[in-house]
């Protein structure tokens, strides 16, 4: 099978689509990736790419076709321009560059924005092949939740675009069970919808790396809560910092370590200084994904959080699978499906989204448990991962779906080079 993957983000940016592409190439499939210029999350095109763009023309045996676009920069206006510049460039310049490429199926990766579906629909029409669309973020619901679009007419327009994209898909993959009814509102009966969650990269699974990051070395008796990932509006850092402030004087042995970057990081840095949290909250910056297992093993608990919004209660945060695969206890400030999974399987301690005091209490509870009790939570989390989110199981399921789609497409309708 020749698979065309369309994703606004791709290596050297760190997203799961990289792992998927490498897996499909390893299985013997030909893969072409249509993507943009690497600029996430800093908002500027990576220096390494500027110096030697030819070095990024292939990945793990897949051909990588990059189209020009406006980098994210800073601010909402620049972000919107970034989204639509990629959609337009990939639809026009991307379609032209791939005009002689014969493919069997298209897979569109949509962690956000949904506009990545526009070039997907264009290439589906050009190539006359089926398209699968992997929805990891629901629009327009997420835009409303984080305050990017608040007007009714703006949300209505985005909804029209979402409906147009979804109804040109042959298969829509939903990252959580709760997404399916929401997607169905836009598709009617126009597309097949299947549950397809994320997985953890193989470097996390089974505690492959048992070493502990030196950066997490602390005073004897300290209890480290680690957050890894995007520092954004959706992650509700005001509540996280409020929980840290609640505990800082009475339980100074509890420290909060944050790995990553994002649009809200400057606010977090300012808030740490303003609220005198530098002794207990530490921003260590971004690290390669290969380093993450050692950080996870060095932490006493792994933190996942989302804002209190209906859309986020339907979401299984992408980092949750990596946390589970690491076999460490999890503390979650979540509502809905993600929290239910942890509670049902005993893989951690949860509190409602937006509940800063509840988060502080959950962290305090974990800190009072014995090492044996926390290790048991980690084992239950790993068992949950292997049951629901194991990498080879999910990627094998996706491969079967795509092969079935490709086989059912009328061969005579496909353009030849």
Describe this structure in words.
There is one protein chain. The protein is an alpha/beta fold and 417 residues long. It has 2 domains: 2-199 and 390-413, Rossmann fold, CATH 3.40.50.2000; 205-388, Glycogen Phosphorylase B (Rossmann fold, 3-Layer(aba) Sandwich), CATH 3.40.50. It is 42% helix and 16% strand. It has 16 helices and 14 strands. It has helices at residues 16-26, 47-51, 76-97, 117-127, 141-145, 152-166, 179-187, 237-247, 265-274, 292-298, 310-313, 318-326, 337-345, 356-368, 371-388, 391-408, and strands spanning 2-6, 30-35, 58-59, 62-66, 105-110, 131-135, 171-174, 192-195, 223-228, 254-259, 281-285, 301-305, 330-333, 348-351. The strands form 2 sheets. The protein has an 8-stranded mixed β-sheet with strand order 3-4-2-1-5-6-7-8, sandwiched between helices. A 6-stranded parallel β-sheet has the order 11-10-9-12-13-14, sandwiched between helices. Helix 3 packs parallel to helix 4 (117-127), helix 8 crosses helix 14 (356-368) and helix 12 (318-326) packs across helix 15. It is globular and about 65 Å long. The protein starts with a strand and ends in a 9-residue tail after the last helix. 46% of the residues are buried.
Low-confidence blocks of residues: 413-417
- Calculate the terminal CA-CA distance, rounded to whole Å: 16 Å
Strand order within the widest beta sheet: 3-4-2-1-5-6-7-8
**Mean pLDDT over the residues:** 91
What is the N-to-C order of secondary-structure elements (H for helix, E for strand)? EHEHEEHEHEHHEHEEHEHEHEHHEHEHHH
Q: What's the overall geometry?
A: globular
Q: What's the total helix number? A: 16
State the helicity in percent bands. Answer: 40-55%
Could you please say which CATH topology of the largest domain applies here? Rossmann fold
Q: Which structural category do the helix and sheet elements fall into? A: alpha/beta
Total count of domains: 2
Percentage of residues in DSSP E strands? 15-25%
Largest sheet geometry: 8 strands, mixed
Query: What is the CATH level 1 assignment of the largest domain?
Result: Alpha Beta
Q: Any guess at the CATH architecture of the largest domain? A: 3-Layer(aba) Sandwich
């Amino acid at each position: 099978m020749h698979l065309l993957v369309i994703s606004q983000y791709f290596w050297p940016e760190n997203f799961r689509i990289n792992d998927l592409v490498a897996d499909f190439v390893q299985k013997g499939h030909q893969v072409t990736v249509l993507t943009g210029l690497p600029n996430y999350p800093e908002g500027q095109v990576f220096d390494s790419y500027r110096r030697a763009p030819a070095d990024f023309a292939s990945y793990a045996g897949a051909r990588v076709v990059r189209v020009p676009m406006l980098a994210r920069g800073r601010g909402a206006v620049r972000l919107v321009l970034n989204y639509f510049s990629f959609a337009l460039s990939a639809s026009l310049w991307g379609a032209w560059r791939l005009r002689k490429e014969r493919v069997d199926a298209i897979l569109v990766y949509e962690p956000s924005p949904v506009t990545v579906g526009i070039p997907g629909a264009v290439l589906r029409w050009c190539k006359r092949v089926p398209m699968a669309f992997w929805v990891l973020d629901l629009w327009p619901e997420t835009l409303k939740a984080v305050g990017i679009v608040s007007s009714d007419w703006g949300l209505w327009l985005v909804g029209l675009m979402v409906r147009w994209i979804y109804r040109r898909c042959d298969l829509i993959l939903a990252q959580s069970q709760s997404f399916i009814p929401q997607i169905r509102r836009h598709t009617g009966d126009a597309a097949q919808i299947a549950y397809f969650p994320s997985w953890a990269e193989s470097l996390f699974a089974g505690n492959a790396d048992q070493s502990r990051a030196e950066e997490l070395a602390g005073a004897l008796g300290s209890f480290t809560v680690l957050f890894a990932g995007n520092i954004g509006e959706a992650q509700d850092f005001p509540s996280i910092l409020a929980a840290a402030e609640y505990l800082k004087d009475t339980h100074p042995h509890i420290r909060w370590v944050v790995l990553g970057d994002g649009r809200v990081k400057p606010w977090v840095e300012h808030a740490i200084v303003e609220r005198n949290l530098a002794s207990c909250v530490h921003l260590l910056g971004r690290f390669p994904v290969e380093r993450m297992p050692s950080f996870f093993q060095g932490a006493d608990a792994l933190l996942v959080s989302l804002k209190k919004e209906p859309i986020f209660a339907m979401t299984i945060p992408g980092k949750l699978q990596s946390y589970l695969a690491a076999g460490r206890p999890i503390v979650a400030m979540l509502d809905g499906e993600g929290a239910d999974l942890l509670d049902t399987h005993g893989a951690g301690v949860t509190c409602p989204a937006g509940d800063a005091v509840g988060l502080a209490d959950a962290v305090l509870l974990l800190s009072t448990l014995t090492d044996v009790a926390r290790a048991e939570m980690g084992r239950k989390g790993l068992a949950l991962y292997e049951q629901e989110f194991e990498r080879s199981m999910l990627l094998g399921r996706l491969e079967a779906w795509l092969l079935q789609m490709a086989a059912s497409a009328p061969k005579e309708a496909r353009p030849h080079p």
